[in-house]
Amino acid sequence: MPSLLAADFGSLAEACRHAIEAGGDALHIDIMDAHFVPNLSMGPDVVKMARRTVSAELHVHLMMTRPDLYLKRFIEAGADTLLIHIESDCDVRVALQEIRALGARPGITLKPDTAAEAVFPVLEFVDDVLVMSVHPGYGGQRFMETMMPKMRSLYDYGQTHHLNYDVSVDGGIDLATAPIAAANGANLFVAGTSLFGAPDMKTAISAMRDGACRVHPETIDFTRKGV
Ligand code: DX5
Ligand code: ZN
């Protein structure tokens, strides 16, 4: 799914439309508070604009120290999936349950330096586990292949415990790295720079989807295959 962070901020509505018309299954929207990460990006009004503009799923990634204070605002703005960080300064389990009670899909995500085990206790409450394959805060960074064992163990945990969450990957995803993530259990792929920077986003999305779907189809039973 295209990540709006890499779009031209001078024409965000057009970027949302373009990303979905090009075949994106959802739009990824990065929210940064300049405290949890050293950058500022967008807020609920951008989510509201995206909701008015496209009917596709809005996958909203909160890189915030206190996401719990803003859940309602983002869900009212139109977020379908709301992802919070395990490193946030709040009761993550309560926040995830609140997201579900407010009618959205709860997701958990973790920084590269955080071990998979840190999120195990909350996996029963989520619909999506997003593995950060770069340090959160900026687009255009290099994919950290060292995150793949962690992704595999999060995928395996779901299989072993019969939990039906998506495994998403975020950071440095392109035609070369999406299949690596797919081979380790990812079924949703967030890509900013590689999709918005492609000469033709439609071709890039379908190539990314094909590349990811071809990998280990016999071992990975994807319920959703999203780019
Ligand atoms: C980084 C964000 C990502 C970012 C990915 O903090 O969470 O969603 O947009 O950008 P690329 O695809 O350029 O690595
Ligand atoms: Zn993100």
Average per-residue pLDDT, rounded, comes to 95
- Structural class, from secondary structure content? alpha/beta
Number of discrete domains? 1
Distance between the termini: 4 Å
Percentage of residues in strands: 15-25%
* Count of distinct strands: 7
* CATH architect. name: Alpha-Beta Barrel
* Oligomeric state: single chain
- SSE topology string: HEHEHEHEEHEHEHH
Give the full name of the CATH homologous superfamily. Aldolase class I
CATH class: Alpha Beta
Shape: globular
Q: Cα-atom Rg, whole angstroms?
A: 16 Å
Biggest pleated sheet: 7 strands, parallel
Write out the distinct hetero groups bound to the structure.
D-xylitol-5-phosphate, zinc ion
Description:
This protein has 227 residues and is α/β, with parallel strands linked by helices. The chain has one domain (4-213): TIM Barrel. The protein is built from eight helices and seven strands. Mean pLDDT is 95; it is low at 217-222. Zinc ion is lined by residues 3, 28, 30, 61, 170, 190. Residues 3, 28, 30, 61, 170, 190 line the site of zinc ion.
Write a concise keyword list for the protein shown above.
17% strand; alpha/beta; binds D-xylitol-5-phosphate; binds zinc ion; TIM Barrel; globular; 7-stranded parallel sheet
Describe how the helices and strands are arranged.
Elements: H1 12-21, E1 26-32, H2 44-53, E2 57-63, H3 71-77, E3 81-85, H4 92-101, E4 105-110, E5 128-132, H5 148-160, E6 166-170, H6 178-183, E7 188-190, H7 193-196, H8 201-213
Parallel strand pairs: 1-2, 2-3, 3-4, 4-5, 5-6, 6-7
Helix pairs in contact: 1-2, 2-3
The structure holds D-xylitol-5-phosphate (DX5) and zinc ion.
D-xylitol-5-phosphate (DX5) binds next to strand 1 and helix 7.
